[in-house]
Amino acid sequence: MTKNIKIQIRDLHKSFGNNHVLRGVNMDVHEGESVVVIGGSGTGKSVLLKCILGLVTPDKGSIKVDGEELTIMSPSQRDKVLQKFGMLFQGGALFDSLPVWRNVSFDLIHNKKSSLSKSREIALEKLKEVGLSERILDLSPSELSGGMQKRVGLARAIASNPEILFFDEPTTGLDPIMCGTIDNLIKSSVKHLGATAISITHDMTSAKFIADRLAMIYEGAIIWDGTVKELSTCKNEIVQHFINGHKHYQTSKK
Amino acid sequence: MNIIANTGRIFLSFMAYLGGLLLFAIKTVTHIIRPPYYPSQIFRQIFEIGYLSLPVVGLTAIFTGMVLALQSYTGLSRFSGESAIATIVVLSVTRELGPVLAGLMVAGRVGASIAAEIGTMRVTEQVDALVTLNTNPFKYLVAPRVLACTLMLPLLVLCADVIGVLGGYLVSIHKLGFNPALYIEKTFKYLEVQDVMSGLIKATVFGFMIALFGCYQGYHSKGGAQGVGQATTSAVVSSSISILILNYALTATLFTN
Ligand SMILES: Nc1ncnc2c1ncn2[C@@H]1O[C@H](COP(=O)(O)OP(=O)(O)OP(=O)(O)O)[C@@H](O)[C@H]1O
Ligand SMILES: [Mg+2]
C-alpha cells in the first residue's frame, strides 16, 4: 500500500509491576486501513490501544500519529492529536450520570459547540446506525442491556466522525445478526468516511470481514501480520493454533 | 534495624503521598482558574453539595446549640455566671463548633460521595472515556466539585451559625427560663465580626480539603468495588483528620488574640 502511515509504533514496552505485558510491539497502520488485532485473552490488546491514546503511559518506545511523536508531547499538544480519535471501550464506559443521547453527543455538546437540539438529532441518527431505536434516547445507560450499552458506546465513538477509530471487542455479547450490522458499520466507516481503524476481536468471522490486515499479538509482541488471504495460508504455528484453536482442542481430546 | 527501616519507609511513603496531593491541588486550582469552564457541572455540584447538605448541617447545628446551652448552664450556675450563656453559645458556635462540626458532617456526606462517584468512574473507565472525548477529567470532574465545595461550606457554616444560636436560644428561653430580649442582647453584645469571619475562613479551607481528598482518592482508586470502597473510606478519614489538624493550626496562628 502506498498510502501514508497513520500510526507507527516502535519497540513499545509496558509492564505493570512484574507483569511485563507489552514487550516490544512494532506496528504500522496506514491511512484508511482497517487493522484487526487478534490474540489470546490478557495478552495486552486493550493495553496497546490505551498506550496509543495516552491513557496508559508506556515504559519505553515510540508512538507516532501522522508523523508526530506522542510520547514526548506536552499535554496541550497531545489533546490536539487526541481529537482525531474515537474509542469504543471493552466495557462500554458509558457515563451513567447522563442519559443515552447525551452520552452519544457528549463530544458534540462540549467541544464542537453544537446546539442541544442538533446534538440530539445527531445522537438519534448514530443510534439508528447501530440498530437502536428512538425509545432509548432518554434512558439512563444502566437501564440498557449489555449489548445495547456496547452499541451506544459504538455510537458515541463514531459520533463526531473521528479520523481514527479504535474498537475494543465491538461485537462481543451481541447476537449474530447484530454482529453483522456492527461489522458492516465498521467496514463502511472505514470505506466511506475514510477513517483508519484498529479493532480488537475474538470473533474470527468478523475479523476476516472487517480487516484489511490482521495482526497477531503473542507474548507482548506482534508475531505475525498480513492480509486475510495470507492468514489462511500462513505457516506460523501459533497463528494457526489460535485461529483453529477449537479444532485443535477437539482433535487433541480424542 | 528493622524498626528504623520500616519507620523510614512509612515516612517516605507519607511524603510521597503529600507530594502527590500537593501536585493534585495545584493542578486543580489551575483548572478552576483557566477556561473552558463547565457551568452546568458547577451548578449541579453547588446544588448537590450545598443545598442537599443543608438538612444534615442544620440538624447538627441545632442540637449542638441546644446542648451547649444546657452544659454551660450546668457549669456556670455553680458560680452564678448564667448570664454568660448567650455569649458562650454564640462564640463557641461561630468560632469553633459551626465550622468544625459542619466540616465533619460534610466530609462524611460529600467527601464520601465524591470519592465513590469519581472512583466508580475511574474503575469503569469512564474517566478514560472522558479523555477520548476530548474532555479533561480535571476540568469536568475535579474542578467543579472542589470549587462548589469551597464556596458552599462557608455558606453552610453561616446557616449553621444562625441555627446553632437559635438552638441555644430555644433551650435558654423555654427550658432555663431566660428573658428573650435580654438573651438576644447578650448574644450580640460581645460578638465581633472577626468571630464570624474566622469561622467562615476556616470553613473555606475545610471545604477545599474535603473535595480535594474526595477527588484525589476517587481519581486514584483502582481494582473494582473494593478499591472504590477503600477510596471512600480514606477520603472521609483523611479529610476529617485534616479538618481537625488544620482547625488547630488556623486557630493557633491566625485567630487568637
Ligand atoms: N491498569 C492496570 N493495572 C495493572 N495491570 C493491568 C492494567 N491493565 C491491564 N493490566 C494487565 O495487563 C494484561 C493485559 O491486559 P489487557 O486488558 O490488555 O488484555 P486483553 O488482551 O485486552 O485481554 P482480553 O481479550 O481479555 O480483553 C493483563 O494481564 C492485565 O492484568
Ligand atoms: Mg481487552
Could you explain how this protein is built, in words?
The complex is a heterodimer of chains A (254) and B (257). Chain A has 254 residues and is α/β, with parallel strands linked by helices. Chain A has a domain at 1-83 and 200-254: Rossmann fold, CATH 3.40.50.300. Chain A has eleven helices and ten strands. Chain A has a six-stranded mixed β-sheet with strand order 6-7-8-3-9-10, sandwiched between helices. In chain A, strand 9 and strand 10 (221-226) form a beta hairpin. The longest helix of chain A is centred in the last third of the chain and has 18 residues, at 176-193. Chain B is an all-alpha fold. Chain B is 85% helix and 0% strand. Chain B has nine helices and no strands. The longest helix of chain B has 39 residues, at 85-123. Chain B is elongated and about 65 Å long. The interface between A and B is medium-sized, with 23 and 15 residues. The complex binds adenosine-5'-triphosphate and magnesium ion (MG). Residues 16, 19, 21, 41-47, 90 of chain A line the site of adenosine-5'-triphosphate. The site of adenosine-5'-triphosphate has 11 residues of chain A, from strand 2 and helix 1.
Oligomeric composition of the shown chains:
heterodimer
Intertermini distance of chain B: 47 Å
Q: List how many beta strands of chain B DSSP finds.
A: 0
Say how many strands of chain A there are: 10
* Secondary structure: helix percent of chain B: over 70%
- Strand-and-helix sequence of chain B, N→C? HHHHHHHHH
Q: Going across the major beta sheet of chain A, what is the strand order? A: 6-7-8-3-9-10
Shape annotation of chain A: globular
What name goes with the CATH superfamily of the domain at 1-83 and 200-254 in chain A?
P-loop containing nucleotide triphosphate hydrolases
Low-pLDDT sequence parts of chain B: none
What ligand species are in this complex? adenosine-5'-triphosphate, magnesium ion
User: How helix-rich are the residues of chain A, as a percent range?
Assistant: 25-40%
Mean pLDDT of chain A: 89
Structural class of chain B: mainly alpha
Q: List low-pLDDT spans of chain A.
A: 248-254
